[in-house]
Design brief:
By secondary structure, the chain is α+β, with helices and mostly antiparallel strands. It has four domains: about 1-40, no CATH class; about 45-140, Phosphorylase Kinase, domain 1 (2-Layer Sandwich), CATH 3.30.200; about 145-310, Transferase(Phosphotransferase), domain 1, CATH 1.10.510; about 320-420, no CATH class. About 25% of the residues lie in helices and about 30% in strands. The chain has nine helices and 19 strands. The chain has helices at about 20-40, 50-55, 100-115, 145-150, 160-175, 235, 245-260, 280-290, 300-310, and strands at about 1-5, 10, 60-70, 75-80, 85-90, 125-130, 135-140, 145, 180, 190-195, 200, 205-210, 320-325, 325-330, 330, 335-340, 350-385, 385-415, 415-420. Strands 3-4-5-7-6 form a five-stranded antiparallel sheet, with helices on both faces. The longest helix is centred in the first third of the chain and has 21 residues, at about 20-40.
């Protein structure tokens, strides 16, 4: 019997997407609610205000260009005259001004950013309403791109991912200690500046540890707020009840996507099965993606420590591997492999082929330190006609030999029994 990928409940073999009926319904409701939000937040008549018009409504800002549009508003590049600096201006959609839930989300993002002062989190400088009554806030301008744009070209090199994720961990650890849970960690909300520094943005769905502004003030739709495929299992059910470990799950999804270019959906393979990387990262990534919060990393700082340890103590990758493209009975005609990643517990010198030569050799004719096959030759050999220091099999030759018919310094065979040969030089 299989288990649900979200809640570990028992499910039948033909279940859809590996989910039980309850989790499948919750996921469907989440996708539907996201579609509702998109329809509400992007009305067809939504037109970006003219930069010159915004400049007239905000005395200290010279708004120059539209940078982008999100579900809640528009983001512009502007110059703040008083402090002579470039900033980003975020304006709430006009059509959403009178919708309480969206106005509260907008204010929530401003409050979340206002209480956070960290080099890996976009800073907020000011907030309020324009002379025309539009909600806005002024924030740090990041000269760079978001992670989604970077991933458009495929997965990142592992070294790049290992540089970025610890920075995200630092930012999340700080935010969590300040009582802020982001609840929408995804590539679109992770900025990379020209120097490669990470900046987390968009705290519009943040959960604040603030009894004055509890989550219950938000609409019922917000109980399932987040982004499909990046949400923790518990967040699918009710986002109001999640804690900081939901952010760690979402970061795990982003981490997997950075390494492989794919999302961890359904029965997914460990990252090292998709791309060549340090296999110790498999354990790290999979732990962030545990369905139960108590089985994940309990703090973002713990994840950062694990990644930094792997980065500073790389596994030893040495040796040689080559094999024939010609297959016989599903095996390459010949295979040669030497070397081992001992710290990772991975034997890279395992050669499998009709003719196999390696640290560990398996084949019809096998030659290696440990050889297994029809005719194996090695320090330890196991097969029908093995020869080596320690040989076990049919007709064996070795220092220590055991088999139907064996010959060696110490040998035991069915035909001759136990024999100890004495050498007289």
């Amino acid at each position: 019997m299989k288990h649900c990928l979200q809640c570990d409940a028992e499910v039948s073999d033909d279940t859809i997407h590996g989910l039980c009926p309850r989790c499948l319904l919750a996921a469907a409701m989440e996708v539907e609610s996201n579609a509702d939000i998109a329809r509400e937040s992007k009305p067809p008549r939504s037109i970006a205000p003219d930069p010159a018009e915004l400049s007239r409504q905000l005395e200290d800002l010279e708004v120059s260009e539209l940078l982008g549009q999100g579900g809640m508003g528009f983001v512009y590049k502007a110059k703040q005259h008083q402090l002579d600096r470039v900033v980003a201006l975020k304006i709430l959609h006009t059509e959403l001004q009178d919708q309480t839930a969206f106005a509260k989300r907008f204010e929530r993002e401003a409050k979340a950013l206002a209480r956070l002062n960290h080099p890996n989190i976009v800073s907020i400088y000011d907030s309020g309403r324009t002379s025309e009554g539009r909600y806005y806030f002024v924030m740090e301008y990041v000269d760079g791109v978001n992670l989604r744009e970077v991933l458009a070209g495929g997965h990142l090199q592992p070294e790049k991912a290992l540089q970025a994720v610890p920075q995200i961990c630092e930012a999340l650890q700080y935010a969590h200690e300040e009582g802020v849970v982001h609840r929408d960690i995804k590539p679109e909300n992770i900025m990379l500046d020209a120097r490669g520094a990470v900046k987390i943005a968009d705290f519009g769905l943040a959960k604040l540890r603030d009894p004055i502004a509890p989550d219950e003030a938000l609409s019922g739709v917000d109980q399932r707020m987040g982004t499909a495929h990046y949400m923790a299992p518990e967040q699918v059910e009710d986002a109001r009840l999640v804690d900081h470990r939901a952010d760690i799950y979402s970061l795990g999804v982003v981490f997997y996507e950075m390494l492989t270019g794919d999302l961890p959906i359904g029965h997914f393979s460990p990252p090292s099965k998709k791309v060549e990387l340090d296999i110790r990262l498999d354990k790290v990534v999979l732990k962030t993606l545990e369905n139960r919060p108590d089985q994940r990393y309990q703090h973002a700082g713990e994840l950062k420590t694990e990644i930094e340890f792997i980065s500073k103590a790389p596994i030893r990758r040495s040796g040689f591997r080559s094999e024939s493209s010609i297959k016989v009975m599903g095996l390459p005609l010949w295979a040669i492999a030497f070397g081992a990643d001992l710290e990772a517990g991975e034997v890279r010198g395992h050669a499998k082929g009709i003719i196999a030569i390696g640290e560990l050799a398996t084949g019809i004719i096998a030659i290696g330190r440990i050889a297994v096959g029809l005719i194996p030759l090695g320090i330890i050999s196991i097969g029908i006609f093995p020869a080596g220091v320690i040989a076990v099999g049919g007709i064996t030759i070795g220092v220590i030999a055991s088999g139907i018919d064996s010959y060696g310094v110490v040998s035991f065979s069915i035909t001759n029994g136990l024999e100890i040969l004495e050498w007289n030089p």
